[in-house]
Amino acid sequence: MPLLTEKHLRRALRQCGRRASSAGVDHMTWRELRQQARSLLPELAAQLADGTWRPGPCRMVTIPTFSGKPMSTAIPTVGDRLVHRAVRNAAEPVLETRAFANWVSGYRPRRNRLTALRQANTFLAAGHRWVSDIDAARVSDGVFVDEAVDWFAEHIQDGTFLRLVRTALEGLPSPVIPGSGLAPLLINLRLSQVDRHLQDMRVVRFADNYCAFAATRGEAEEMCWRISDAMRVVRLEPNANKSRIRRHANAEDLFLIDG
């Protein structure tokens, strides 16, 4: 397809090919893929164009998270990760325009924790010092392939592209499993279903953490319930250990990793 030609695969390789991440089940490394790119990329581009590309199996590993908890993650082959990156490159400009709210940061180009903090400070400076701080629990769990493809299809109508997305997702143990190059985009697509119900609120989302800003505790509690209700649209719920109502919040205390 036009957006997944050899040229676009080479761009994806420049973006992720210098990494030192682990090899997949085929033991091919990024270095080896770069060395063989002259022959492998035209072949891969042809498979993507004629619809014959199929992902390889994933290597499953358990790694500690930032907080020390074990997390199961999938390691696709570097070739499959290259396709994931190319798919993300093709979809991201459309989704940035159509799917993602201005108050959403994390897993997006040029929108990080600092972007979220600047937006949060605007609300705090205006006197909205009560914060409904709601973290989504297990945001990668419980997603079905059909559902994930539908999230793309809401904004992208190219049937060839959507079939490729389906093929890529069916090759994973679950669509949003950590380790996939598509997981960050899918997390934002899942939460965009929540975001659309919150557009009239003073709210900032960084990754899977919502902060809604209120002038009173009563208003903050109402916002808490609204966010919780909106999460049910995609079978999510607040993380009870991380979600709370804050009084006189400091922006630097918001959107902390494992905070």
Written overview of the protein:
With 259 residues, the protein is of the alpha+beta class. The chain is 44% helix and 13% strand. A hairpin with a 2-residue loop joins strand 5 and strand 6. Residues 73-246 form the Reverse transcriptase domain. Keywords: Nucleotidyltransferase, RNA-directed DNA polymerase, Transferase. This is Reverse transcriptase domain-containing protein. One of its GO terms (molecular function) is RNA-directed DNA polymerase activity.
H/E element order: HHHEEHEHEHHHEEHE
Cα(first) to Cα(last) distance is 43 Å
How would you state the average pLDDT, rounded? 93
User: How large is the share of residues in beta strands?
Assistant: 5-15%
Structural class: alpha+beta
Core attributes:
single chain, 259 residues, alpha+beta, five-stranded mixed sheet, two-stranded antiparallel sheet, 9 helices, 7 strands, elongated
List the helices and strands and how they pair.
Blueprint: H1 6-16, H2 30-35, H3 37-50, E1 59-64, E2 70-75, H4 78-98, E3 104-105, H5 113-125, E4 130-135, H6 145-153, H7 159-170, H8 183-195, E5 203-206, E6 209-214, H9 217-231, E7 244-247
Helix pairs in contact: 1-4, 4-7, 6-7
